[in-house]
């Protein structure tokens, strides 16, 4: 037996985000990807249809945002931030609009990616794209372990995030 007590617990994935956990899901996602202005920042409205949550029993353990041609998990970029945000090139792939787990290395991220793969296939999309800070070695390793490969790089997202890698998982790839 491994020392990881959580991997033995079932992770259930829900999409869209259920109303009963939306506030907690939004707070967890915003803590990982939001813009902090000092003090207590208000969490903007999120779109349940562009989100997915991982649950263990009644506990929220992870959140994934989804971005496509109809928008993303964040319903609207706050006005002060919209001027600074730089979008990555358009794609026909489903874009992972941030993925965060309460605890790392518990299988939560892998479960969310698996569900995103299935959702993208159901929608007839050819791939999943993740936009990862070049400096985020852990995220780069995580995505590489799931078959994502670098397809581009640039200065996307917030100006202070530095260079961003565009990673893609080809859903039509065999093997």
UniProtKB/TrEMBL annotation:
Signal peptide: none annotated. PROSITE patterns: GNAT (PS51186). GO terms for molecular function: acyltransferase activity, transferring groups other than amino-acyl groups. Keywords: Acyltransferase, Transferase. InterPro entries: Acyl_CoA_acyltransferase, Bact_Acetyltransf, GNAT_dom. Residues 11-172 form the N-acetyltransferase domain. It holds the Pfam family Acetyltransf_1. This is Acetyltransferase (GNAT) family protein.
């Amino acid at each position: 037996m491994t020392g990881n007590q959580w991997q033995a617990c079932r992770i259930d994935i829900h999409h869209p985000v259920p109303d009963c956990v939306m506030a907690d899901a939004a707070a967890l996602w915003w803590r990982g990807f939001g813009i902090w202005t000092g003090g207590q920042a208000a969490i903007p409205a999120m779109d349940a249809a562009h989100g997915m949550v991982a649950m263990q029993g009644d506990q929220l353990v992870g959140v994934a945002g989804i971005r496509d041609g109809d928008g993303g998990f964040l319903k609207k970029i706050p006005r002060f931030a919209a001027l600074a945000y730089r979008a990555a090139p358009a794609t026909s792939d489903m874009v992972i609009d941030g993925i965060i787990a309460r605890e790392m290395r518990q299988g939560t991220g892998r479960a969310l990616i698996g569900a995103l793969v299935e959702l993208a296939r159901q929608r007839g999309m050819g791939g999943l794209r993740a936009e990862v800070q070049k400096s985020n070695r852990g995220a780069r390793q995580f995505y590489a372990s799931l078959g994502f490969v670098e397809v581009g790089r640039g200065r996307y997202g917030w100006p202070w995030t530095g260079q961003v890698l565009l990673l893609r998982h080809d859903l039509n790839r065999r093997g």
